[in-house]
């Protein structure tokens, strides 16, 4: 009996160790994660700096800057909190956990809160741009502190989404077979079986919130695009039913900036769908079937999906600065200047004043040339001059300046005296 138990234990231990990735794959994922971490920290840090500089120089509105800074901060927290832990626990030591039960709970809570703060910040930014473009009068009637309230609501909502993980997660040994004892080499930070229903409800609720946010942002982007595609509106101007076309938006510059914001929102919705969906599928796998009922094939699929899902999930925190650069030429120029440590942004009012003075100077330089051309055109097109001088012999010498070939004239003669 002891031998059979020992043989069964060895079989289970050997079988589960096969799920670990090879050493070469671990090294590759470590290099990839390190590259993503460095790019994410540098990109989001520069995004915060550039957004504040552009806002001080009049190129960005303060509310848009606040949303961009909040979104970049949530991306930074996701990378700094999640990636080192995932690199250690999911890649190098997937079936052992050196952390305690309390640290496991805190990690899951913070990571969940920062993750959903990212997508909720996208939702608040979309809502504010939607109100500004589609409902400008209601947007102006709101309080000036609406941006701070929206950002605070986004972070509080993300905290509420993550609160159940403080109860439903912890350090636990995985049960290899139904009714069997936990294998020590499978002890890791996971969801607790004692709070299975609560964990399952929180995961499915968070997934539903994710879908609602994506659908809401897509709807608002569609509405904003529809408004910007109709730049003119028809209004009655007289009692006789006359109509006139009047501009709907203030200026072409404002319309271009709004188009850049919409382009960024559309790109970020597509990015959140592509990069977040594998991670959501992995989470749904943990909530769909209790760990005690997992088969070897089920766990194999989960282990493979986890590496792919984590890579795409962390990649989304790196792509946000890239999307800013794609959607705004001014942001791209300032971003590249910051990378070269040569950031020099001129205030928008001073730049416009310099452009105005340059146009005036060029017009003054053109005025003398214009006057000269006007004087030349005022002269008669045909010039005929006669100069008569007496020669030494008394006979007259007549010099005739002939007109241009295009002008016809009669031949002039002189009589001898």
UniProtKB/TrEMBL annotation:
Residue intervals of the G-protein coupled receptors family 1 profile domain: 43-324
Biased composition (Low complexity): 407-417
Entry annotated with the keyword Membrane: yes
One cellular component (GO) term of this entry: membrane
Location within or outside the cell: Membrane
Record InterPro entries: GPCR_Rhodpsn, GPCR_Rhodpsn_7TM, Zinc-sensing_GPCR
Matches recorded under PROSITE patterns: G_PROTEIN_RECEP_F1_1, G_PROTEIN_RECEP_F1_2
Entry's transmembrane regions: 27-48, 69-94, 106-127, 148-167, 202-221, 261-279, 299-323
Gene Ontology MF terms in the entry: G protein-coupled receptor activity
UniProt KW Membrane keyword: yes
Keywords associated with the record: G-protein coupled receptor, Membrane, Receptor, Transducer, Transmembrane, Transmembrane helix
Ranges for region Disordered: 385-417
Family named by the database record: Belongs to the G-protein coupled receptor 1 family.
Protein name: G-protein coupled receptors family 1 profile domain-containing protein
Organism of this sequence: Electrophorus electricus (Electric eel)
């Amino acid at each position: 009996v002891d031998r059979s138990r020992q043989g069964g234990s060895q079989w289970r231990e050997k079988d589960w160790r096969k799920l670990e990735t090879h050493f070469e794959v671990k090294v590759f994922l470590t290099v990839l994660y390190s590259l993503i971490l460095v790019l994410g920290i540098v990109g989001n840090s520069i995004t915060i700096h550039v957004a504040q500089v552009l806002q001080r120089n009049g190129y960005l509105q303060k509310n848009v800057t606040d949303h961009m800074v909040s979104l970049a901060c949530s991306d930074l927290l996701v990378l700094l909190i999640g990636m080192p832990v995932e690199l250690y626990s999911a890649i190098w030591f997937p079936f052992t956990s050196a952390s305690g039960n309390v640290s496991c709970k805190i990690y899951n809570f913070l990571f969940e809160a920062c993750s959903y703060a990212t997508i909720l910040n996208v939702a608040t930014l979309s809502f504010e741009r939607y109100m500004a473009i589609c409902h400008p009068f209601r947007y102006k009637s709101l309080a000036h502190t609406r941006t701070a309230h929206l950002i605070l609501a986004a972070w509080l909502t993300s905290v509420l989404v993550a609160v159940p993980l403080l109860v439903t997660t912890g350090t636990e040994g995985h049960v290899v077979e139904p009714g069997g004892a936990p294998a020590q080499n499978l002890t890791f930070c996971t969801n607790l079986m004692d709070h299975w229903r609560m964990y399952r409800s929180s995961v499915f609720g968070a997934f539903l919130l994710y879908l609602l946010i994506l659908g809401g942002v897509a709807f608002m982007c569609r509405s904003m695009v529809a408004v910007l595609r109709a730049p003119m509106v028809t209004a009655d101007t007289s009692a006789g039913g006359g109509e006139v076309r009047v501009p709907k938006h203030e200026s072409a510059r404002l319309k271009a900036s709004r188009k850049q914001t919409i382009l960024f929102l559309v790109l970020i919705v597509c990015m959140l769908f592509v990069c977040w969906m594998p991670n959501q599928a992995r989470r749904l796998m943990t909530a769909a079937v209790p760990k005690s009922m997992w088969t070897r094939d089920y766990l194999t699929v989960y282990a493979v999906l986890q590496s792919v899902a984590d890579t795409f999930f962390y990649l989304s925190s790196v792509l946000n600065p890239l999307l800013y650069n794609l959607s705004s030429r001014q942001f791209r120029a300032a971003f590249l200047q910051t990378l070269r440590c040569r950031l020099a942004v001129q205030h928008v009012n001073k730049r416009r004043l310099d452009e105005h003075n340059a146009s005036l100077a060029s017009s003054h330089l053109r005025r003398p040339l214009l006057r000269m051309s006007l004087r030349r055109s005022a002269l008669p097109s045909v010039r005929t001059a006669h100069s008569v001088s007496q020669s030494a012999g008394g006979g007259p010498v007549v010099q005739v300046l002939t007109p241009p070939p295009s002008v016809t004239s009669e031949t002039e003669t002189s009589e001898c005296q």
